[in-house]
Design a protein that fits this description.
This protein has helices at about 25-30, 35-40, 50-55, 110-125, 140-150, and strands at about 5-10, 15, 65-75, 80-90, 95-105, 130-135, 155-160, 170-175. The chain is α+β, with helices and mostly antiparallel strands. Helix 4 (about 110-125) links the parallel strand 5 (about 95-105) and strand 6. Helix 1 packs across helix 3 (about 50-55). The chain is globular.
Length: about 180
């Protein structure tokens, strides 16, 4: 199965496989994503980046060799600004699952996310993937807007609690065809 390169670029970004020495800085970026848990009901993981680096974040029946966690840095000053985590070949061989994408809050709304998705889409199309999937919390309106604007315009399902309340949560899986 073809996979994303160890390092790839967009106009303003460098995306590359996480190295062990990157973990502390990337975990500190991950820490700034804590606010997301108000919408998805998940517990915050203080060792998320290290766990992903060592054992991946795999789907049911997933294999570590199909998983990648990559850092996102700026071309201009080589500064870490985010994280990308993907699984190649789920739920089908020609699918990519975006497990996690996060750009630091203070850097958001500067076009980096859209730029990354456009470059990612180009790379995955060249590798003959047919779709990208992502799971988004229904209460995360900014993310839903971002993903729909990015071309994730198909819904494969809604999963989670059946009723809406302040302490119930549900997600939708969105698909972008390539």
């Amino acid at each position: 199965m073809k996979q994303l390169p160890v390092e790839w670029n967009s106009d303003r970004l460098i995306i590359s496989d996480v190295k062990e020495s990157d973990i502390p800085e990337l975990q500190s970026i991950y820490e700034t994503s804590r606010y997301l848990h108000q919408w998805d009901g998940q517990e915050h993981d203080r060792n998320y980046v290290k766990k992903c680096f060592e054992g991946g974040h795999l789907p049911p029946g997933g294999r570590l060799e199909n998983y990648r966690i990559q850092s996102i840095r700026t071309n201009e000053d080589d500064r870490y600004i985010g994280l990308l985590s993907v699984y190649h070949g789920y739920p089908s061989e020609d699918s990519i699952y975006l497990e996690f994408l996060y750009i630091q809050s203070e850097i958001q709304k500067q076009g980096y996310g859209q730029e990354l998705i456009q470059a990612l889409t180009r790379h995955l199309s060249e590798l003959s993937y047919k779709e990208i999937r992502i799971n988004v919390a229904l209460k995360n309106w900014p993310a839903l807007r971002f993903w729909i604007k990015s071309g994730f315009n198909q819904i494969s399902g809604i999963y989670g609690d059946l009723e809406h309340s302040t302490d119930t949560f549900a997600n939708t899986e969105l698909i972008k065809s390539l």
